[in-house]
Design goal:
Elements: E1 12-15, H1 42-48, E2 52-55, H2 61-67, E3 72-74, H3 79-82, E4 93-94, H4 101-104, H5 106-124, H6 126-129, E5 138-141, H7 145-154, E6 160-164, E7 174-176, H8 179-190, E8 204-208, E9 221-232, E10 235-247, H9 260-263, H10 267-270, E11 283-285, H11 286-296, H12 299-319, E12 332-340, E13 346-352, H13 362-379, E14 391-392, E15 395-400, H14 431-449
Parallel strand pairs: 2-3
Antiparallel strand pairs: 1-2, 1-4, 5-8, 6-7, 6-8, 9-10, 9-12, 10-11, 10-15, 12-13, 14-15
Helix pairs in contact: 2-13, 5-12
């Protein structure tokens, strides 16, 4: 396994059949599947798929969801012998693409976004390339140290934030305004007794700090939003309606850049605060956040903000579309971290390959269990979907080799005048009602065709 992947949690799913060969080689996403080669009718195929083997390393909401899913069976000694991308049975599914780190490591994400922005400028012009201006100016350290120093001296007095490229939960992050702080950091990273001078320091990114974040109650926050990618070639991505705003526990100020409770919104950091309230936590559901914005700003401004957030999802995925090893056995549930500034401009902070599935409150538990249930509905190991759905539970199909319209039928993209994307971030999530209607409709279709 590549070193970059070692921290990711892998979850493997496989239909359990009576045949040691599995089902053979057909694509679950295709409606026109060929069943004759297996001697199985389509109905019999679906019936046998009711039993799914799974293996996961997490003991949190994911395990709760998997153990309560009808027909799913946990196995103990199956992961290592079957987790091999070179050959897997047709219907095995793994919860990561092999080189997902191209988007989820902070330095690779910025590298790919910069490259993609230059590509757009060459092919479509500066106006289109400007749609990628949603990440702060960033330098990889130590390899771009001299470029960073040049930029630093052009803008003296501003605040920068230093982040390890492959750590999470706020570990190793600090803010600075002086080059001396970087020199101290470089010395500290080499000062371990177990290190030799010729061993390179851990890679970091130095990123311009957003000094004017949008505040609610005087506190800084960012948004955690979930995007499910089922394929990169072609790109097929779903956006979840729910998510949350994560707040700092202390009122925002730039007078104290060393106080992590002011500047870092990670729950892992905030829950160590002396006045942290475990029952209340530091989260708002996205629906509440969207309602708050609607009460403070014009509807047009709120709609523009959420369209700009949609743009971040699409452009970031497109930036790695030709880099990620697309594999039909793989899917990915990304956790996007978005910061909004006082001008209602969204900024992409990072993309997480293994977003936290541990609940910090009852409301958080309900959100994450529903998210995971709907993820499994979209992955569709039971082969119940037709492949033409635009909504499954709380997930809306955002991109399917092109933008997806809310309207039925093929959209007219020539002018894009009346085109409205099929995204509902922060809107009402009547997922239970939708799932009942969806699966009832699919049952009726199945009976009519049998």
């Amino acid at each position: 396994m590549p070193r970059e992947c070692q921290r990711s949690e892998y979850h493997v799913f496989q239909p359990l059949t009576s045949s040691p060969q599995g089902y053979g080689r057909q694509d679950l996403s295709s409606e026109n599947q060929n069943y004759k080669g297996h001697g199985l009718s389509k109905g019999k195929e679906r019936e046998q798929r009711a039993s799914i083997r799974f293996k996961t390393t997490l003991m949190n909401t994911l395990m709760d969801v998997l153990r309560h899913r009808p027909g799913w069976v946990e196995v103990k000694d199956w992961l290592r012998e079957n987790f091999d991308h070179t050959y897997m049975d047709e219907h095995v599914r793994i919860s990561h693409f092999r080189n997902h780190y191209e988007l989820t490591r902070k330095n690779y994400m910025v590298k790919n976004l910069k490259r993609f922005r230059k590509q757009l400028e060459r092919e479509a012009g500066k106006l289109e390339a400007a749609k990628c201006d949603f990440f702060p100016k960033t330098f990889e350290m130590p390899c771009e140290y001299h470029l960073f120093v040049e930029e630093f001296r052009k803008n003296p007095g501003i605040t920068w934030i230093m982040k390890p490229v492959a750590r999470s939960q706020g570990k190793g992050i600090f803010l600075f305004r002086r080059l001396k702080d970087i020199m101290d950091w470089r010395k500290d990273t080499r000062s371990s007794d177990n290190q030799k001078d010729d061993i390179p320091v851990e890679n970091y990114v130095a990123q311009r700090y957003i000094e004017n974040p949008y505040l609610i109650g005087g506190r800084k926050f960012d948004l955690r939003v979930y995007v499910l990618v089922m394929s990169y070639i072609p790109l097929r991505a779903w956006l979840y309606r729910d998510g949350f705003a994560r707040f700092s526990n202390t009122r925002f100020t730039l007078n104290s850049i060393d106080d992590q409770y002011v500047h870092l919104t990670n729950v892992a950091v905030q829950k160590t605060s002396p006045d942290y309230h475990p029952k209340k936590g530091c989260k708002w559901m996205l629906q509440r956040f969207r309602q708050y914005l609607a009460s403070k700003h014009r509807p047009e401004a709120v709609e523009t903000l959420f369209r700009d957030i949609d743009n971040i999802f699409v452009k970031s995925l497109q930036s790695v579309q030709k880099v990620i090893i697309s594999d039909k056995h793989c899917f990915e549930l990304y956790g996007y971290d978005i910061l909004i500034d006082q001008d209602l401009k969204p900024w992409l902070l990072e993309v997480n390959a293994s977003p936290s599935l541990t609940a910090s409150s009852q409301e958080d538990y309900e959100l994450k269990t529903c998210l995971l249930e709907d993820t499994l509905h979209v992955v569709d190991m039971e082969a119940r979907l037709t492949g033409r759905e635009k909504r499954v539970g709380g997930f809306d199909l955002m991109w399917n080799d092109g933008p997806v319209s809310r309207e039925e039928g093929a959209p007219d993209l020539s002018g894009m005048g009346n085109f409205v994307t099929n995204t509902h971030l922060g809107c009402v999530n009547d997922r239970k009602k939708q799932l009942r209607q969806l699966f009832c409709s699919l049952q009726l279709q199945k009976k009519a065709s049998s």
